[in-house]
Design a protein that fits this description.
With about 140 residues, the chain is mainly alpha-helical. The chain has helices spanning about 1-40, 40-50, 55-85, 85-90, 100-125, 130-135. The mean pLDDT is about 85.
């Protein structure tokens, strides 16, 4: 019985490690995609700023677009998570695999991760000088 407990604990520690790595990779991936998108749309941001868009509206534009993609990913991930709950059922103790509190917590965590990853590129886009952005090739 003690060996079974140790093997399950080791499995959960490994699972936790990979979950942490996955969270780090998701932050890096979202940051990279948003940064690339902002870089590709430099001229558009310059035109928006030249036409009178405020810095807040540029930040809002980038964050809203990031959150749309994040919500789509969360929905796809939730469907996939519910699909694999039968496999995880034997490893969870006193927790239902479809526990709504856990799903809401993960949902909030991913929204926070997406916002944190998108803030730097959004602020960088808002700080752009319109004349420099319009000359950008």
């Amino acid at each position: 019985r003690r060996v079974l407990f140790r093997s399950r604990r080791l499995l959960l520690e490994i699972l936790g490690f990979f979950a942490s790595v996955a969270l780090g990779l998701s932050v890096l991936g979202i940051y990279s995609l948003v940064s690339y998108s902002v870089n590709q749309r430099t001229r558009e941001m310059g035109v928006r700023r030249a036409l009178g868009a405020s810095r807040i509206s540029i930040i809002e534009l980038i964050l809203v677009q990031t959150l749309r993609w994040t919500l789509a990913g969360i929905v796809i991930g939730a469907v996939a998570a519910i699909a694999v709950t039968q496999f995880l059922r034997s490893y969870l103790f006193h927790i239902d695999p479809t526990d709504p509190i856990t799903f809401v917590a993960v949902f909030v965590l991913f929204i926070a991760v997406a916002i944190a990853a998108a803030l730097r590129p959004a602020f960088r886009a808002a700080q752009m000088d319109p004349t420099q952005a319009l000359r950008y090739q």
